[in-house]
Amino acid sequence: MKISESFVLWLLLLGAVSASESCDCLQNQEQTAQLKIELDNLKQQLQVRQVAFSASLLVTGETTIGPLPTDIVLIYKNVITNIGNAYNSNTGVFTAPVRGVYNFEWHVGAVGDGSHASAGWLVKNSENVFMAYGQQNQHFGSTANGVTLLLEVGDVVFVRLAANCKVYDNVNKHNTFSGHMLFPM
């Protein structure tokens, strides 16, 4: 495709010109039909690339999870936003639907007892990436962290409660996991 045709395609995509106005710039009907097909494909790709989610641990009630002898996946059941349906509230796992750069944040907290921290690993596939860690001797304490990752289609991201640590959640939604795609690659 020539540069001028690419430019017209982007103008069509952005809505800067109508399809009939763009015909004057193109040499024939066949090119116009091909550009319309490509425009429809680009629009469809843009819809797939709208990915964002945010969830907290509990829908109702209150609970303390941990301390446990091994790491466990935290399952965030109270889904506030799940554009693109890439977060699974049954498993606690986000699965990248498209290759791109994604940003994640997670918040963990618990009532301090002096002997157990509140700590959650953000995990990409099976690799611990970053940890949010905090410890209080008494009262409630929380901590958070964030990361930007390049993900391939099918990569999974989740939060893992660290062994011998705990989290507490109630109607105030202290423990959250959120993510969104910054841009496709």
TrEMBL record:
The keyword Nucleotide-binding does not apply. The keyword Secreted applies. PANTHER family: CEREBELLIN 13-RELATED (PTHR22923:SF102), CEREBELLIN-RELATED (PTHR22923). Its main location: secreted. PROSITE patterns: C1Q. Residues 1-19 form the signal peptide. Coiled coil: none annotated. Keywords: Secreted, Signal. GO terms for cellular component: extracellular region. SMART domains: C1Q (SM00110). It is found in: Secreted. Residues 46-185 form the C1q domain. It comes from Perca flavescens (American yellow perch). SUPFAM superfamilies: TNF-like. Pfam families: C1q. InterPro entries: C1q_dom (IPR001073), Cerebellin_Synaptic_Org (IPR050822), Tumour_necrosis_fac-like_dom (IPR008983). This is C1q domain-containing protein.
